[in-house]
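[Meeting: bench + compute handoff]

Bench side (C.D.) handed over the final construct sequence. Compute side (W.E.) agreed to return the predicted structure before the next meeting so the bench team could plan truncations. Sequence as handed over:
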Amino acid sequence: IVVGAGSAGLPAAIFAAQRGARVLQIEADSRIGGTLHLSSGQISAAGTSQQKALGIDDSPADHYEDAQRIVHGTIDPTLGRLAIDHAAETLEWLLACGFEPEEGTPKHTMGHEPFRTRRYLWGTNKAISILDVIAPVHAKLVAEGRIDLRLDTKLTGLVQDDAGAVTGVTSQSTAGAQTHNAHNVVLASGGYAANPEMWAELTPGFALRSYCNAFSRGDGIRAARDLGAFVDGGDKYMCTFAGVLEDPGDPLSTALGLNLAPHNRMPWEIYVNTSGKRFVREDHPSVDHRENALLVQDDTKMFIVFDEAIRQNAPPIDLVQGAALNEKFGNHPHYSKAGTIAGLAQQMGLNADTLADTIARYNAAVDSGVDEDFGRETMLRRIERAPFYAIHAGGITVLSPAGLNADERLRVVKKDGTPIPNLYCAGEILGFGRTSGKGFVGGMSLMPALTFGRLLGDSILQWEGARAAAQ
């Protein structure tokens, strides 16, 4: 049984079926793909045919060392090495399926901290480029009856025998409650970032602003934990810089589109915290530096402050809303507009004198060309022309940092390290921090999910006659 039909569940089911397994695959959504429908599709691998064709000398050992460098050694060494050591094989499989990397890839960076080597790639249509080439392989196995795919089917629990081995799952669908038996159960059901209650429990102290798969509700984590599985990793949370809640009362209403990356758009605005003070060099070239600065602010909250002259002259700050953004100012609780700085501060819930002092100090830095507070280098305009504007933003999550612990065979383990027999996991259910550490390493979320699913189906899962059946 494979629980989930996303970036880990699809390859797990495909490779197990190709080895001769009779696979039951349940998926809570009404479609396959999971987070592939939302992901940017960035993957990374070392020692690939693509690199060799370009004369790039790379190895898994170098890849692993580079990844740990980026996140200061916080990647789980066992699972990090497992993912990286087998990433090239996963890429070659995708290429054989028809995956076409974007022209100009591999690169050393794109949105995250840079690698030292060009090993970072993606398709022409984000993660849909991956789904488009593996979905037909999966569909053929479903049509042949080698994968029994059941959509709109939610995992409700795991079944154990008297010895503690997992022997199946319970589920709920329009057909009612059912029990299914199996030699192996793979949990590839995603994370928990669409479950505010579980977020508060597993990631305490960090506000939830989520942009994720609506089915990332932690069903697999809950079921495994009921059997004694060890869950940790919430302390490895790193926010993404940054997003806005469309509905202030709904942490799942995060809207993306703010273009705050200096390599794409130099900031004209300033960023202030809930005290009304700047907290970071807005044009700092390191996204890791900016994200860590935001992480320690109250509620990981920030305000983007500017004036009418900046609004008129700066490149668009929101690539999704564009000109429509102007209509939100003064008409939405998270897009403030006022004729005075004091009026703006009132709408932001800040001390007016503090905000005025912050803006005055920044204007003085513009005039002198020296930002004594943070060393900002790009300061194009003073903030002085009414009306004044503020976007209420904050750190967001697109993934779940905590998750199940697993050993080198991807077996779910208890706190003492002993595996729960017949129970395996792959993908985001392991926790994003397991393979990307406390930060963002290019490709170290999606590629490990694909790789772990492939490894489980291709070699790790065992049943009587597995190899003979695959001949």
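W.E. noted at the follow-up: The longest strand covers residues 388-396. C.D. will use this when planning the next construct.
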